[in-house]
Amino acid sequence: MSNATTETIETLLQEARSFPPSPAFAAQANVGDPAIYDEAAKDPIAWWEGWAKQLDWFEPWHTACEFKAPNAKWFLGGKLNATYNCVDRHAAGARKNKTAIIWEGEPGDVRTYTFAELKDEVSRAANALKSLGIGKGDVVCVYMPMVPELAIVMLACARIGAPHSVVFGGFSAESLQERTNDASAKVIITADGGWRRGKVIPLKQIVDDAMTMGCPSVEKVIVLDRIGDGKANMQPGRDVWWHDLVPKQSADCPCETMESEDLLYILYTSGSTGKPKGIIHTTGGYMTGVLATSKLVFDLKENDIHFCTADCGWVTGHSYIVYGPLANGTTVLMYEGAPDTPDKDRFWRLVEKHRATILYTAPTAIRAFMKWGDEYPDRCDLSSLRLLGSVGEPINPEAWIWYQQTIGKGRCPVVDTWWQTETGAIMITPLPGTTATKPGSATRPFPGISAAVLNDEGQDLTAAWQPGQEIGGYLVIDKPWPSMTRGILNDPERFAKTYWSRFPGKYFPGDGAKMDADGYYWLLGRVDDIMLVAGHNISTMEVESALVDHPAVAEAAVIGRTHELKGQAIAAFVILRAGHESTPTLVDELKGHVAHKIGALARPDDIFISAELPKTRSGKIMRRLLRDVAEGRALGDTTTLADPAVVQALKDKYESTES
Ligand code: 7RM
């Protein structure tokens, strides 16, 4: 988006609908008064200190914040333990017998843990790690399915001060090896397998492959028996069964006293250069950020059942299945498998059966649900739900409205939450009891977070913004916040360059943003997803929204491909809804629809109807590969795709259609 200036940003999203919180929701909400924004802005450090005080500290901090870009430290001198805050303090009090985790496996098996039971299980797992020589500072690599033991292992690591590095169970042996070695992990914890769409993902086999390729730092592999077919190929001396090691341990394991800035975890995220970045999070600041955002964004109450559908292999699972809700003493619902197994109503059956009150999921899932049809949610009882959340990518207004109407029955506030692995916690979001929402807008920075929109020259457009004006450019965060990453493991230079060099002294997340006439933020996608068509900035997301608004379209991915005259031309890849046929008339109609919705400048040059789109394992469309397809290049790196065959088939079909 090199030419992103106020003048060239078009007013593309004419979303006029606004949904104030219902009086009933506002009356009971944790935050019902917008004054909280100004209070926090007056003294953000004091505001965050207020939240930090809601954690249990073994020793208080003496300095709240020390910041010299790109390095931040929070709550210096303070000592605490994350697991103590998520488990022990609840197990020792009134929440002792309250359910902490409800878990359902894909085959339908259910297990629950009270806070007291969780404390025992976590302590046994922690003692098991200690018995293998793992202690403070030793990295534990976790490669597990979404079973309760995954959360237990994370909390066990935090209990003894061993940073965990959870690798999503969908990653390949090579990716696992790369991450294990980058972090010099001493142990890998895995399972014989995990269930996904009725099939077993052979996790232990993949660990074996990674070990064969070479993981010199790994001394032991702990294997959980999830599948129960006894097929794991155990290597004597190296591999040990969970059931031989953990249950015999004592349920008494003191929490290690950690400095506020001691490492809590490492989580790898993909970078534009290909090599994954080991994003690091420390203890005091991270816990403060997830405690505060969980409580206010999800309006957490004592009786809530929080269902976040992410996998713990992603930051959303770290912050909003494990650390945030549990720090608040909230019951979480964890699900192992796919949303369409045994049928496309699985999430709604889970909500119905376990009476989930909060659902936090991703736009890519919401669009799939829309495509599958209303009959699936409509046949389930969703009356327990009181709040809906969205995360992971911009949500198009059509999907937002469908979510609000069909799942929320117009009764539940929808919170569209913008944040990143690097930010640790939610950054831009409505507060459901006080912020009027607009479909497609993440609304406002969370209290205590200071964001701005800059132009190409780094001028702060928000500083001069006046009500009624629209501005667009690059999103930055211009003040430190507690849960911000402390860097990239082993690579401070890359950290400084990637996030802090584009606009010196400010954190640049890589996203473009618009501020509308009401001062609301609209996240426009990654800046490399902004097209420059004949001098006009057009976000791929805005064109996608327009396409998905058409009744024949289930999902769309838009890219800018190089064009001789216009700089870039718009190419759209479209999946049709069931019952619609790909015809030249429909293609013309779709082009006209976009032109009608946004303006002629946004009329796609090409529309290619496809059966599938290339997606990462976390469901993000890889537009880079679509650009390769549209520009007739050899495909770039496809190793992070859920299914590399999809994009190859797409390329073959695209090329045969063209000629
Ligand atoms: C939580 C998570 C981060 C990137 C981020 C954005 C995009 C995430 C939204 C969003 C628009 C949202 N972490 N993103 N949430 N874009 N609206 N509500 O997804 O590290 O995996 O990804 O995801 O581009 O930079 S992440």
% residues in beta strands: 15-25%
- The stretches of 5 or more residues where confidence is low (pLDDT under 50) are 1-13
Gap between N and C termini: 32 Å
Record the strand order, biggest sheet.
12-11-8-6-7-14-15-23
What does this structure look like?
By secondary structure, the chain is an alpha/beta fold. The chain is 31% helix and 22% strand. The strands form eight sheets. The chain has an eight-stranded mixed beta sheet, sandwiched between helices. Helix 17 crosses helix 18 (584-598). 5'-O-(acetylsulfamoyl)adenosine (7RM) is lined by residues 269, 315-316, 391-394, 416-421, 442, 509-511, 523, 526.
What is the strand and helix layout of this fold?
Elements: H1 23-28, H2 35-42, H3 44-52, E1 63-68, E2 71-76, E3 79-80, H4 82-91, E4 99-104, E5 110-114, H5 115-131, E6 140-143, H6 148-160, E7 164-166, H7 173-182, E8 187-191, E9 194-196, E10 199-201, H8 203-214, E11 220-224, E12 239-241, H9 242-245, E13 258-259, E14 263-269, E15 277-282, H10 283-297, E16 305-308, H11 315-327, E17 331-335, H12 346-354, E18 358-361, H13 363-372, H14 375-378, E19 387-391, H15 397-407, E20 414-417, E21 451-454, E22 471-477, E23 487-488, H16 492-500, E24 511-515, E25 521-526, E26 530-533, E27 536-539, H17 540-548, E28 553-563, E29 567-576, H18 584-598, E30 606-609, H19 623-630, H20 644-658
Parallel strand pairs: 4-17, 6-7, 6-8, 7-14, 8-11, 11-12, 16-17, 16-18, 18-19, 19-20, 29-30
Antiparallel strand pairs: 1-2, 3-13, 4-5, 9-10, 14-15, 15-23, 21-22, 22-24, 24-25, 26-27, 28-29
Helix pairs in contact: 2-3, 3-10, 4-5, 4-6, 4-11, 5-6, 7-8, 10-11, 13-15, 17-18, 19-20
The protein binds 5'-O-(acetylsulfamoyl)adenosine.
